Amino acid sequence: MLRFLRPRAVPPMPSVPEIAVAVAARQMYLVDVRERGELLQTGTARGARHIPLSQIGLRADPQAADAAIRPGMPVVVFCASGGRSGAAARRLRRMGYAPVWNLGGFGDWVRAGGQVERV
């Protein structure tokens, strides 16, 4: 098979404690793609940037001067259960972000011991 046709290997997703350390050190983006009302009800992961799925194309556009995130650092996305974050991860990859991992739902973050901050 031609090399350029092979899918790129994605490193395994880091653990929640590893993600928390990398986000605190500004070496990784953690993105909450839920709607604002959901964040108000449950809080969000400590250090997460809020970019609703409906705004990913605009707020993560690498060409935009005011983009909330930039290519060049790993990205972990999450939502309420994993569906929207899966869509966000696919979109970010198409926009040139890599690696991008789908953590799943906010509950996965909490169950793994991730810290929560109120909005």
Q: Which architecture does the CATH hierarchy give at level 2?
A: 3-Layer(aba) Sandwich
Category by helix and strand content: alpha/beta
Tally the helices: 5
CATH classification, class level: Alpha Beta
Share in helix: 25-40%
Give Rg in angstroms: 14 Å
How would you characterize the largest beta sheet?
Answer: 4 strands, parallel
Describe the structure.
The mean pLDDT is 94. This protein is α/β, with parallel strands linked by helices. The chain has one domain (13-117): Rhodanese-like domain (Oxidized Rhodanese, domain 1). The chain has helices at 16-24, 36-42, 56-59, 83-94, 106-111; strands at 29-32, 44-45, 49-50, 75-79, 100-105, 116-117. The strands form 2 sheets. It has a 4-stranded parallel β-sheet with strand order 3-1-4-5, with helices on both faces. It has 5 helices and 6 strands, in the order αβαββαβαβαβ.
Question: Any descriptors?
Answer:
Oxidized Rhodanese, domain 1, globular, 119 residues, 5 helices, 6 strands, 18% strand, alpha/beta, two-stranded antiparallel ribbon
